[in-house]
């Protein structure tokens, strides 16, 4: 059971929020952020990061494709 | 050994950027600077260097608490989540972040437009000259943040005094500063107790619910301080930027005319003005290196503080072609006006919305806007801008 992390490059503002908080999971090596790996083991704190993205550009989905974050 | 220069460089009055930043950007390495209080620090002025310091986990805000932090006042300013590092910072930020995402905030646009419309109606009814700060720039963000957070907007005159003191760089004594901060906390604590008994659909009630669900995630004091932080940060900067933006636009009549001709230009205009206006007085919120880090060909040693000038970074020609020109057609828009990294402005989407709607309303309905006299500037605040700005139209 792994989660899929996606950063919508069109929506990303390059704030550096995700890469700053979790450099093990995200990087901002250009103007837009991207996940370091497309999938990750379930980790509640990743949902927190997705919720905190000012652009709501990070989505996290479970193995069945259900959207876990951002949570409304 | 390089000499240590007195900082900040900017004049307190006005919003000009000191020419010494350009000199610093063009010189190799980084400057050593000293604020009125605390230990000397490195000063990052180039875009790449500022972005590195703000975005890299090897730099810590929390470490400042244990050090003689460089600062403009004898007392230490309570930094709230701006004084924290992840994961503590993330734990608290996420509780409020959801309320301010682009998605959530965009739904507020019709309501914000209605508020700006009402304020402009009142200005027109009163007739000029009118103080743009008091009649427009302050009441707009105050009303918005009060409604979202759950603070009565009619208390504005009470909390404005405390809020001003919190962001002041003046010679308040430690006792005076502490008393102001204490009163604001007490005021907010009372509101939290009221709201706990009678929850509403606002951010304060949501935070109270989050604490009820998990008391270890959020202490009572953290809850109160988060509300204080949202209230203060949620209105002062926007209220200051609205007259700053107007002041700059009126000094660039062709740009103001562009907005009057086409209000859709407010979107690029706000981004460009966020880049262009040197809002910060300079010298706040130093970052401490937790290990040796190379910045701008200088090795910052573990334990040394670095100050960044966001305004200088935003005027770096290496990043923004002809950076001192105000242009609405820039392709490079990654300015640092809202900061960068984990402390990137939590309320940036809301600030953008308010600034866009403010300019849209003014350009559409007061196209002949002009200053009736020179603005009276704030002189002892972390953020620079007019205290009073009399306008006609």
Please specify the SSE layout and strand pairing.
The complex is a heterodimer of chains A (72) and B (393).
Chain A: E1 3-7, H1 17-21, E2 26-27, E3 34-35, E4 39-40, H2 44-52, E5 58-61, E6 67-69
Antiparallel strand pairs in A: 1-4, 1-5, 2-3, 5-6
Chain B: E1 4-6, H1 20-26, E2 31-34, E3 41-44, H2 47-55, E4 59-60, H3 88-97, H4 102-106, H5 109-126, E5 130-131, H6 132-137, H7 139-149, H8 156-166, H9 174-197, H10 203-213, H11 220-233, H12 236-251, H13 253-261, H14 266-276, E6 287-289, E7 293-295, E8 298-300, E9 305-308, H15 310-314, H16 348-365, E10 370-371, E11 376-377, E12 386-388, E13 390-392
Parallel strand pairs in B: 1-2, 3-9
Antiparallel strand pairs in B: 2-3, 4-6, 5-13, 6-9, 7-8, 10-13, 11-12
Helix pairs in contact in B: 5-7, 5-16, 8-9, 9-11, 12-16, 13-16, 14-16
Q: Write down the domain tally of chain B.
A: 1
Number of helices of chain B: 16
Oligomer: heterodimer
Spatially, the strands of the biggest sheet of chain B line up as: 1-2-3-9-6-4
Helix-residue proportion of chain B? 40-55%
- The count of DSSP E runs of length 2 or more, i.e. the number of strands of chain B, is 13
Mean pLDDT of chain A: 91
Biggest beta sheet attributes of chain B: 6 strands, mixed
Going by CATH, the homologous superfamily of chain B would be Cytochrome P450
Which geometry of chain B do the CA atoms define?
globular
Order of helices and strands of chain B: EHEEHEHHHEHHHHHHHHHEEEEHHEEEE
Named CATH topology of chain B: Cytochrome p450
- Number of continuous helical runs of chain A: 2
Low-pLDDT residue intervals, each spanning 5 or more residues of chain A: none
Textual characterization of the structure:
- The complex is a heterodimer of chains A (72) and B (393).
- Helix content of chain A is 19%, strand content 25%.
- The longest helix of chain A has 9 residues, at 44-52.
- The radius of gyration of chain A is 11 Å and the shape is globular.
- Chain A has a four-stranded antiparallel β-sheet with strand order 4-1-5-6.
- In chain A, a hairpin with a 5-residue loop joins strand 5 and strand 6 (67-69).
- Chain A is built from two helices and six strands, in the order E-H-E-E-E-H-E-E.
- Chain B is 47% helix and 10% strand.
- In chain B, strand 11 (376-377) and strand 12 form a beta hairpin.
- Chain B is globular.
- Chain A binds chain B through residues 11, 13-17, 19-23, 28, 31, 45, 48-49, 51-56, 70-72, and chain B through 51, 54-57, 86-87, 89-91, 93-94, 97-98, 100-103, 334, 338, 340-346, 348-349.
């Amino acid at each position: 059971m792994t989660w899929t992390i996606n950063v919508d490059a069109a929506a990303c503002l390059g704030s550096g929020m995700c890469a700053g908080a979790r450099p093990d999971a995200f990087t901002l090596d250009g103007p837009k952020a991207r996940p370091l790996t497309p999938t990750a083991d379930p980790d509640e704190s990743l949902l927190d990061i997705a919720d905190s993205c000012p652009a709501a550009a990070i989505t996290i989905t479970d193995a069945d494709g259900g959207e876990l974050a951002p949570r409304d | 050994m390089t000499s240590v220069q007195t900082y900040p460089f900017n004049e307190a009055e006005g919003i000009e950027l000191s020419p010494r930043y350009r000199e610093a950007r063009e010189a190799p390495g980084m400057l050593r600077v000293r604020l009125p209080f605390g230990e000397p620090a490195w000063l990052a002025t180039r875009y790449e260097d500022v972005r590195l310091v703000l975005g890299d986990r090897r730099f810590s805000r929390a470490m400042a608490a244990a050090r003689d932090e460089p600062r403009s006042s004898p007392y230490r300013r309570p930094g709230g989540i701006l004084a924290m590092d992840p994961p503590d910072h993330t734990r608290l930020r996420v509780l409020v972040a959801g309320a301010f995402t682009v998605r959530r905030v965009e739904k507020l646009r019709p309501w914000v437009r209605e508020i700006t419309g009402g304020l402009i109606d009142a200005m027109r009814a009163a007739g000029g000259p009118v103080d743009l700060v008091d009649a427009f720039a302050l009441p707009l963000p105050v009303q918005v943040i009060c409604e979202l957070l759950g603070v009565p907007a009619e208390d504005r005159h009470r909390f404005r005094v405390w809020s001003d003191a919190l962001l002041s760089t003046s010679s308040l004594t430690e006792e005076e500063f502490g008393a102001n901060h204490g009163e604001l906390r007490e005021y907010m604590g009372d509101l939290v107790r009221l709201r706990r008994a009678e929850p509403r659909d606002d951010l304060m009630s949501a935070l109270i619910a989050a604490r009820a669900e998990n008391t270890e995630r959020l202490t009572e004091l953290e809850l109160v301080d988060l509300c204080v932080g949202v209230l203060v940060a949620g209105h002062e900067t926007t209220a200051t930027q609205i007259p700053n933006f107007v002041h700059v636009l009126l000094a660039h009549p062709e740009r103001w005319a562009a907005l009057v001709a086409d209000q859709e230009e407010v979107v690029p205009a706000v981004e460009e003005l966020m880049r262009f206006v040197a809002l910060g007085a300079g010298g706040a919120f130093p970052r401490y290196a937790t290990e040796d880090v190379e910045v701008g060909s200088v090795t910052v040693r573990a334990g040394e503080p670095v100050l960044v000038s966001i305004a200088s970074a935003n005027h770096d020609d290496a990043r923004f072609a002809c950076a001192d020109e105000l242009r609405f057609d820039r392709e490079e828009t990654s300015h640092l006006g809202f900061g960068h990294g984990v402390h990137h402005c939590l309320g940036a989407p809301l600030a953008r919305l308010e600034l866009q709607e403010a300019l849209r309303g003014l350009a559409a309905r007061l196209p002949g806007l002009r200053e009736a006299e020179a603005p009276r500037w704030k002189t002892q605040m972390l953020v620079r801008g007019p205290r009073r700005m009399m306008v006609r139209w």
